[in-house]
Structure formats: structure tokens, C-alpha cells
């Protein structure tokens, strides 16, 4: 065997059309017969699942130029070979669902009593018991799109929708309507505080009084840019409020505002971003290097870029920013709890789980799953620490970073192990792999496969047809897995 002579190397234009790096063509072999070479291209795991397309090329010894043929245009399916998660329940949904929440009735409850689902114009409330059933006497509005649900105070529930806030407590319902010709465009909640942003650019702040009622602060913040997202930090132990609020705006900025009673909604700091923020989440997370817990602001951008930055709750300063590209879609962030640890679930064209690893520090791991819509924590007698996911495409159960999603269905699952986060995929090869090449500009790898004296598909078909045309011919193509592919004589 010999390397393909230089004058038979494909031209630059052909290389560009075939989307193959030059190094691929330097490793093409030929022998006495036409050499059959198969090139498999696939995306690395940092860009999602291992999926690829196979191109097959025919190199003729007597031809001056090579030519490529698409054998198939369908992606090669990846094989899921992980499966350690515990699926607790799966239920079909009554329509296209965009959000999900699970809530307790009182602060002292250990298990969630309701699962709330919302679509573009409806809200569905389901009670949690031996079975998950839809109910109509919960007090929640069902003819609106729900933006947030929160157990607040000692025994209150809050439902926030575009036209107002509904506070349910001890069987009594109180509604706070927004001013006329305005709507709520963003919301943030915790067990003591509520912040809503109006379409007019105003930010309105509420706190729970000592008697459990919801009190609106007179101080309001007017912003020149439309608010796209909000986030409240957790209430520190022994205190009654989170001291800071993060506000994301269409002008590609994030503002940190004070929630101290003496400086309510005053600006502490501002951070300019490369794109408009689509989601924010302030989470208290451990730092294994300093053995302490600090506040971190997680920022999802409309461009698919994710940022994690340390937040000083006193000065509002943002520092130690890390960035990562997660996908082509705007990012949605959800705080989830896994094995007693606060984690961030980032949803883009693929879902990612961010958590603190004792040895490696903060780690972002892609989940083996298609696009997800929403997520929330869930706790019951059967599943003390679970997560509900809303997905759009299909039901799949995989790996130690387990997840289950279903078409028009929600699934409850628990994650068994955070330490095993390796994403593994196998793609079957037709011939012996000869070389692995990375595309110089695109996120693809190419596997070059070749066999000495292997007949290409066209020649195999011609020889088989010629054998069948003979009077005494009795020829059939044997399956290649047990018998191998036909070879030439040389």
C-alpha cells in the first residue's frame, strides 16, 4: 500500500464542500482495487450528545480527482448505555406546558402538597397523594398563565400571574391587581419576599409582615430599560430577608439592588454583559477551596452563554466571573437540590447541571437529554429529594446524573450520584479506524475508516448483479456482521 499521490489530493474547493480538514485527505490509502474509505464526523460531548453523519468516498486509482457520495443523511443514533436513576412517577399533561412548581402548604410541612403546571393561557393544579390528581378547590386561578408559585410566611401560598398576585392563607384569598394597562413581565420569590417587574419598567417589592400578610413597600424602582429577569437570594439563617436583588435588563446589564429597609431598591452595582440576560439565579453554594459558603449569581444570556460570578451581599460587587457556552438557545436557570447540595440546572438546547465537586470545585455537567422546558424541586414520602422535569420530545431514563422527560408529560426523578458525570457514547464503525482528526474551525471530529482490498458499495452491487445474471448463478449478499465485507483479489 502507498499514500495517495499529491496530484490526486482533493482541491481546496472540494475540501471545503466536503467539510473535511486537509489532514483527512493525507491519510487516504489505496491498493490494487478501489479502496473504500468511510469518514464519520461527530460533535464532541461539550456540544451535546455524540451524534454524527457518515460520508463515504470512492478513490479510484486511475482517477485524477476524488469524488464524495452521501450514503445517508440521517444522524447516526447514539446508544444510551447509562442507567442508574430512580424514576418515581410519570404522568401525561393536559396540553403544552411551559412551567412547573411544587409547593408545601405550610413552612413546617416536609412534603409537597400541590404540583402546579402552566401553559400559555391556563393553570393546572394537582394534589400529591397516593396518586397525582387534578383538583379545582385549591384557590389558585386556573384561567391565567402562572409566572411563579411560592409557599410564603408560615402558612401562605402565593400565585403570581401577568395581571396580579394572589395570596392564599387560612382559606382566605387576597388579590393584588397591577395598575391598568400594565402587566408583570418578571418575578422573583423566596419564603419571605416577592419582587415583580412591570412592563412599564417599575420594580415593586413585597415582604411578609409578622402577622403573615403581604405588605407592599412604598419605594419603587423605575428603570429605563425593560426588565427581562429577576432573582432573590436565599434568606440567611436567623434573618428575615435576603439583602440583595439581581435585576436583568434588555440593555444587556445586570443590576444589584439593596433590600435593606434603610436603602430599599437602591443600586449597589451594575455589570455590563455581551447579550441580554434571559435568566438569573442567586444561590448559596459551597467553595471547597475556602471551606465556606458564599453567594453566587448565575446568569443565563439570550445568546446561550452562561456566567457564574461571586456576589458580595454587602457591597453588591461581582467578581471571579466564569463563562461557558451551553447552546444556541436562551438559557433558563432553575435552582434544584441534589444530595443536600444546592445546584443550578441550566436549560438551553441541552440541559446542564452545575454543582460543587469536592475535588474539582464548581462543575458544569451536560445531561443526556433533549431540550427541557422547566424544572422544580419535589419532595414526598416516596421521594424525599426529587426533581420534576418538563420535556418536549421523548421519555428517556439514563445515568448517574439521571433524568426522565416525556412528550406532554412530567416526570419525577431522583439523582443517585453526582460523582460519576462522564458522558459516554459509542458509534459503530464499518471499517477499521485509521485516524481521528478535528475540524480546524468547526466543533467536529472525523474518524477515517479504511480496509485493504475492500470493495466499494457500487462495485459490490455490480458484481452481485453480474453473478445473478448468469444461468447457473446462485449468489446472495451475506450479512457483513458475521461474514465481513467482500474483498478483491490483490
Derived from helix and strand composition plus strand pairing, the structural class reads mainly beta
Relevant CATH superfamily of the largest domain: YVTN repeat-like/Quinoprotein amine dehydrogenase
Distance from N terminus to C terminus (CA atoms, Å) equals: 11 Å
CATH architecture of the largest domain: 7 Propeller
Mean pLDDT level: 76
Q: In what order do the strands lie side by side in the largest sheet?
A: 5-4-3-38-37
* Tally of separate helices: 4
Q: How many independent structural domains?
A: 2
What overall geometry do the principal axes of the alpha carbons give? elongated
How many beta-strand segments?
Answer: 38
Gyration radius, rounded:
29 Å
Helical coverage, percent range: under 10%
| Main sheet record | 5 strands, antiparallel
Q: Could you name the CATH topology of the largest domain?
A: Methylamine Dehydrogenase, Chain H
Under CATH at level 1, the class of the largest domain stands as Mainly Beta
Subcellular location: Nucleus
InterPro entries: Beta-prop_RSE1/DDB1/CPSF1_2nd, RSE1/DDB1/CFT1, WD40/YVTN_repeat-like_dom_sf, WD40_repeat_dom_sf
Pfam family, one: Beta-prop_RSE1_2nd
GO cellular component, one term: spliceosomal complex
